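ok so heres the complex, two chains, lmk if somethin looks off
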Amino acid sequence: MTNTTSINLDYLAAKYAQTIIQQTQNKKASDVENTMTKALGVLQEDGVYACFLYLLAREKENGAVVVDEMLNLLSSLPFGWQKPTNNSNEILRFINEQVTKDLERLLLAREVLEQMLIYARYGAKARDKGGSEASGASS
Amino acid sequence: MAIYKRRRYLFMTLDPVHIGTGGYRLGRVDNSIVREPGTRVPKIPGTSLHGAARSYAAQLYGTPEAAGQTHDEIENPDKNPVCYTFGYIKKSNNGQDVKAYSGVVNVFDAHIVLFPVHSLVGPVWVGTVERLREAGFEVSDVPREWAKDKVLLTFERTDPLNLGWLMLNSGGQVTVNAPTNCQIDRWNAIKNKIALVHESIFSHIVNSNLEVRTSVSINPETGAAEDKALFTYEAIPRATFLTAEVVLDDYRAKFEPVPPNKNSLPSNAGWQSPLDVLDAGLRLIEWLGVGGMGTRGFGRIAIVGQPQEEDYGQQANAAQSPCGEGATTP
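and the predicted structre for the whole thing:
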């Protein structure tokens, strides 16, 4: 069922990004940032399904937190998507059969997930108060 | 009386091109590139092209001091073709006297027309009907209506086609012809590998297939990576086709033609108008590049064929005769 009330997508992205940062308080900020950067890369170049697959297969505790919040974000969208159980197969089936089914919804989902991961990436950077700025360095 | 002329260039990137936002954007990468606000499609700003063209034209003419922010060292800037073309600010008498003229060429942003993407049939160049037509291409056999999840192809295929991670159904075959004077080898190599999508999908495909690199600072003593010195950046990939317009607004009408061999100009190149000065500068971008990371394999852009030119109030016509191999009339 589709909810027609207006939804602030930026608010949702920020909300779940903050939750990721809170849930990973006890982890090294640079590791959290690293997970975000890699997830963003896979999302952008290989798509939504690949991003979930990557996080489930390659990332450890941080990955599980990110997957959970990504699913929360998707189920907050007005498309009637029900969050699957915490089982890898169920999650991947949910992405494949519901999220990637409709092109416009898929593209919107991808965009909001990307925004959330960007906020989480910079959230992790902000938490890493002792760290120095990476941008602007040269190789 | 002012003379208005407009030229439309077709460019192809020879390397990844990084025109950075200077850290004013949050993004997937640390150093993101400039995008069109409405579509989020990356572009090359006119300011970047203008600056590079001015600098290279100044070098070509043998007066590098004609580039840069001030032009105090140019003795007679009105007689310098680079200063005349791009404008100048000359201060004298300890900054008491300031003489300034605006340039007589306007260089506009370069927009992506065809973007290379990997697919199961090899690389294809993705564009939209609107972008191609805007750039002077002829696109025929386009269905009146076609679904968003379909792609129009310049080659025969009925099965779905993936454009990067996105799989789209085939919506039929179309014909795309480049402007006559752009039909050279670079165009001929891709003309049968074009996929047209809806404008709303285009941005997603482009942004999903940008070149992204990771670099790290190396400690010269240990030869190992410096801690916290890793950074990522994105770029418009190699073999992207872009189009940009330039307009001649010669409100001064005092340009003095420059014969070949004058100063350090090549023997086959004289400058008859400010547009020739600009053209010479733009063509050097094929050697010297534009944007960031120029010394690390980034930035070169080639002009494809010759620009289309029109006078104000007249229909578009070819700036010069058709060039290169395989030139045909569409």
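quick notes: Residues 53 and 279 of chain B are 8 Å apart (CA to CA). thats all i got rn
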